[in-house]
Every structure is written in C-alpha cells, then in structure tokens.
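worker-03 picked up job from queue 'complexes'. Input manifest follows; two sequence lines, order preserved.
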Amino acid sequence: MAAPLRLGIAGLGTVGVGVLRILRRQQALLAARTGREISVSAICARDRRKDRGISLTAHDWEDDPVALARRDDVDVFVELMGGSDGPAKAATEAALDAGKDVVTANKALLAMHGQALAERAENSGRTIRYEAAVAGGIPVIKALTEGLAANEVTRVMGVMNGTCNYILTRMENAGLPYDEVFREADALGYLEADPTLDVGGIDAGHKLAILSAIAFGARPDFDGIEIEGIERVSIDDIRHAADMGYRIKLLGVTQRTGRGLEQRMQPCLVPASSPLGQLEGGTNMVVIEGDAVEQVVLRGPGAGEGPTASAVLGDVCDIARGLRLPTFGQPAASLQDLPRASTGLPAPYYLRMALDDKPGAMAKVASVLGDAGISIDRMRQYAHSDDTAPVLIVTHKTTRSALDLALAAMEQTGVVATRPVALRIEHL
Amino acid sequence: MAAPLRLGIAGLGTVGVGVLRILRRQQALLAARTGREISVSAICARDRRKDRGISLTAHDWEDDPVALARRDDVDVFVELMGGSDGPAKAATEAALDAGKDVVTANKALLAMHGQALAERAENSGRTIRYEAAVAGGIPVIKALTEGLAANEVTRVMGVMNGTCNYILTRMENAGLPYDEVFREADALGYLEADPTLDVGGIDAGHKLAILSAIAFGARPDFDGIEIEGIERVSIDDIRHAADMGYRIKLLGVTQRTGRGLEQRMQPCLVPASSPLGQLEGGTNMVVIEGDAVEQVVLRGPGAGEGPTASAVLGDVCDIARGLRLPTFGQPAASLQDLPRASTGLPAPYYLRMALDDKPGAMAKVASVLGDAGISIDRMRQYAHSDDTAPVLIVTHKTTRSALDLALAAMEQTGVVATRPVALRIEHL
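worker-03 finished. Artifact:
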C-alpha cells in the first residue's frame, strides 16, 4: 500500500465535522478504494473549545489556517472555512505555494478568484478540487469535467440553492407569504449569516459561475451573471403560476450564444410536471445538455453534513488515487474571456398586473403588447372585490428588452396600479 | 502537449461511428481538455464494405480485432463489438496482455468475465473503463466509483434498459397489448438481435451485476441476480396499477442485507409520481443511496449514437488525462465473494386475480392471506360481465416466500381461475 495521504482540515463546522466522522467510520473502505490510508495530521478552526460532538484530540491543533496549510505533514489542505477572501484565500494560496493539493467547499472563493487560483495550482503542479462547492452531494463537477468531457456543452441549468427552494416550496405547500417562511427558515438555521447570500441568489450565482467556467472553457465571471433573488416572489405569483401548471424556482441557466455567454440566476416559472418543477425542499438539481449526450439530469441533497462531506471526501479519494486535473478542466491559460451576452434569448414570460376595473383598460394593455410585437399565449382575469382586477398574461416568446419597453409603456397608460411582475418561463 | 493518445476501434456499429464522428468534430476541444491529441490508428469491423455514412480511409483497417488490439501504434483498445465471449473477449484479453488500456461498452463481457479481466488488467498495470456499458450517456460508473467513493453504498436501483421502458410506457400511453408493442419496437430496430436480452431482463441484469460489484466491492455475480423479464406484463396490470397510482417498470435493485447481496431485476410497481415512475420511453435512471450522501438520482438517455459515444469518449479522456482505476474501483483481489441473499426483504405486493363470482369466494382469498400473516392495504373488485371478477389487492409488507405460499394456497381454494399475478411494489 502506498504512503498515507495526510490531510489538514481548516474549518470545523457542520461539513468539517462530517468529514472527520466519515474518515473515522469508513477508514477501511477508503483505504480499500484508494489504496492508501487517509489520515488527518492537523485541524484548525476559530474556537478550539467549542463542543462539536466529536473528540478532536487525535489531531494537532493549529490556530492559524495558513500555518496549517504549510505544515510538512500535510499533503492535502482541506478548506472548509468559507468566504471569498480573508483566511480562506490566504490559506489556499499558501497551500498551493507550498506544493499541497487543495480540496475546498468554497464556492465564493472559486467564483471570485478561480482564475488566479487555477494558475497558481498549475504553477505548483497541484490541483484544486471543489465538488462540494456546487450542489452538495451531487457529483456534478465530476460529471461535467470528466464524465461528459467529450461533449460540447450547450446549456447547464439547475436549482442550486436548497434554502431558496425550501422557501419557495414551503410557501406553496403551506400557502404562507415570503416573510413568514423566511423567518421560519432563519429559525431553523437554514440561512447563511448574511441571508442575502441565499435569498439574493448570490450563493447560487457563485455556483453557476463555476459551472459556466467548466462547461464553456471560460474564465469564471461571477460579475457577468444577471442575478435576481427570490425576495420579491409573492405567494400570489406562486398560486397563479400553479394555477397555470407552473412552479416558481430560483433557476440558474448558463449557455453560450452567438453573442457570448449568457448567465442568469433568477426566479423562473418551470412546468410543474417537469423534473425541475417537482423538486421539493432542499434538494438540488442540475441539468447538463451537450451535443453528444443530449441531456443528463442529476438530483440530490444540496447541503447537509453527510452529503457535503461525501463530496469533499470524493475529491480527497481522487487525489489519493493520483487524479489531478486542471481546476476548470483545461489549463487556466486556455480559459477564454467570453463576452457577456445580455440575457437576450427570447422566452415566454409570465406577467401579473393589477388592472384598473375600467372600460378599455384591458384593450390598452393588449395594444401595448401588440405594439411591442409581443403576442399573448394565455390570459386570465380573476374575480375581484376592489377596483383593480388581477390579470395574468403568458406571452409567446419575446426578448427581455422588448418586454421591458412594453412594461414601461404599460405604466404610462395609467391603467395598471404598479409595474407588472414579469417572470421568465423556462421549458426543459 | 503530451504525445497523442492513439486508439484502435473494434466495432463500427452505431456507437463506433458515433465515436469517430465526435473525434472528428471535437478534435480541438478534446485536445484542450485532455492536453493530448486523440487519434485513431486503426479500425476493425465485420464488413469492410458496408456504407456507414462516414469516410474511413484515414485509418488503417484490420480484419482481426486481436491483431488490432496488439498493434504497436494503439495505446487504447476500444471494444465496441459486444458479446460476452468470442472476439470481444479474445481481443480485450490480447489488448491487456499487450499493455494497452481498454475502453468498452460491453456489459455482457464485464458481467460474465469482469473478475478475470480486472485481474488481467492489474497484472499489466492497465485499466478497463466501461462507462458506456451501463445506462448509456449517464456518467453513473464514474459517479459510483469516484464521486461517491467515500460512501458505504446501501442500495442502487434503476431502470437500465431503454427498450423495456419504451415498451412499457408505450403500452400504457397507447393502451396496446405487449405483443403489439413488441412488434412495433422490433420494426423500429429497438431490439437486440436476440430480443430476450432486452425483454427478458438479461441486458439490464448485466448492468446491475456491474453496479453491484462497484457498489459493494463484490465480484460480479450475474448468476446471482433474480431476473424476470417484462414478457408477461399485461396491459391489464398496467391499467390497474395506474388506477392505483403506480406504474410498472423493469426495475433493478441491488442491496447488501444482513444475509448477503440481494440482486433483483424484475417488473415492479413504483409510485407514478416518483422520479422512476415518471420515466418515459428510452430514458434510463439510476438511484444511488449511500450512508453519507443519502440519495443521488441520475437520469439520461440509455442508448443511441451520441449518448453512448459520449460515454466511450469520456473514458478515453480519463485515460488521456492519466486516470487509471482498478476495474471495479478497488483491487480485483480485494473484491469479495458475497453470499447471495434470496430476495427476502419484505415489501408490499400488488396481486391481480380472476375471482369466481360466487358467495364466499372473497372470504376464502382473504383468509388465505390472513393465515399467511399477510395483511391487506387496499383492495378493489371491478365490475365484470363474465363469471369471474377482476380483483386487485395491495398487501402490506410481506416476504416473497410468505407470499408464494399464500399464492399456492389460493390456487388450492378453487376460487381463482389461475395463479394470481404478483408484482413487487418498490417505494423510493
């Protein structure tokens, strides 16, 4: 048997503890599969005295993750601290410079500094693996980088933030408004310390930036993603969408178009009967489309101790087995700086508006849409007791820019109380 | 850039031609991703003159696959001929003995001779990869062997024969009997030359044997699988199952129980609303459950030129990148000879019988079940015009052996026309 693979683990939250638990429980299994013993030389976290439910006395303790990353008895630096900058970045850089491989669950770090880190890893002949950074326990990074490597990827899309999906499905199933479910999720500990990371779509955006880089051989471009969170999704929209056979999901889409790379993370309507539409709670789903494979769909738990630790240790097993890939599947220098295509590909849209209950009001709305070249697929006006009528319109395919002009013009007519809600409809 | 990776391809059916097409179309992409040019030194097939729709003049032709496998200018032998013995086996062995890596789509070969081939590969320091052998374009071998390597797998299940799933969904959607849809599928070219391989569950069984070996570190044991084909699934059963919220699928299940390895490939009822229940046509789905990851579901095309070629070339890319794993994820010598657990874990069952329309008939059936300790979850008797009444029973969990005793006793009562149909119900 080859020499043991020695880990240094920085960050002992849920995932770090999960990694230690699996390493202890499955020591023999991991050795059988990788041909090496996997050991933990040292660990590091913010608070040494915190009770984490497992004994830590078997491992050296370091207060400084950078010192941990540089230790002679560490082969792989496992970064589970999080944060795009600060200690996580400093320690990852130190590890690579010291000739260690890195395994991380840190999506923000990769999305923001992936290019520089990829170059750094290549300069040291080391690898950065990050299966746990995207879609929890689902081995999607591996599927995209390796299993589907012979494909020219055409589109990747998915639901990649379990907290948002929990909130949206809970709103629908319990008929509760956003604010109330948000408070519930917070009380359950489902939200990040800064909840905007979740509900604002930032966290899911980080994941999308990583998938884009691999799928299209592009430099990670988080700032190029059009991001819209779920904060403004109302229970009314969820109900109306359901009424027309749709469900609302925070959906990430990345695709290469003739004009460049289109990356979006936004609440969308998807058919309720589609795989994405049926996704409940904290489950994640990623759909990969390629010229050869057509479509592969991967589904699994998006977070949690076991699933995320499974992904971290899958990466560790790869390294133990000698697999070292360029960070985004091809050499960093070959990653392209793709132009950003504003989200211009036409799609059908769902519109909801509060229409004045006056003769001619509907005609004005309809003619604004007609003037903008937008045709109506379906329309519903609901019964109402006040002086505005809830009106839903599903358009045929149109561009977002044409739609935005029409929505502005609609406001000018004076027959809609506020600017209509507009949500893209995505068909699988 | 490293030296080119030179392939020898044996078998130029749909998949072989697909591999050549992708290699030509995506030459630059594959080189960017693997760091090497991937070239084809020589090819081989049964009939040199057959028109395959692409030019083959750029490659040397060999009539003998064994000679192809041994060529000095071949680094990887790509076996796409099929068949568990004969030329496929001889050429694969020759390739390994000559120090070549092997990529194959041949599930029968691996299921029947996997252990010996794995040992042979290890003796030569070479690898056998076979992503295309299971579930077409879905990178499930990679997910199980690598991505989920840190898991103690608890169960793997799935729909792995697209032809059977096509037949079953077509029967349901068109309301057609088995024989008619079978003839349709045959006319469409969906069936193997020996259709028993498909509809008899043999092909899917080969795939299950491979998944079992990886999941449980066991020697492949195809003969240990309890296999039942779809030939006796009737349109009546499909309709009645649908009526109670189920769909019938040819479902493979492998799990390790206290008594050994339980492997089954048989028509089962699954909830119509479950991911497996919703699988249409030729699509495949594999569900992997592990102690850490909980449950991961993979879905994609189970066959076809593009998807299968995608899987073959994914393996080629792995080899180009230097990844060489033991065939079933751990050294062949460490694979265990697990005892066969007869399919004894209790499950609910669907029973359909033609009951004599006489006073006391139902009481007799019910008391036979009661005497066997089998309790009834749901029962329906349908209106009928002749003198036997269609009766459906869904039992609570029971063992197959208790059920078989009860079914035999039921026949003895003289109130059922023939032995009742019994199908296992599998909940995800």
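worker-03 released lock.
The two ends of chain B are 47 Å apart (CA to CA).
Chain B touches chain A through 58 residues (CB under 8 Å).
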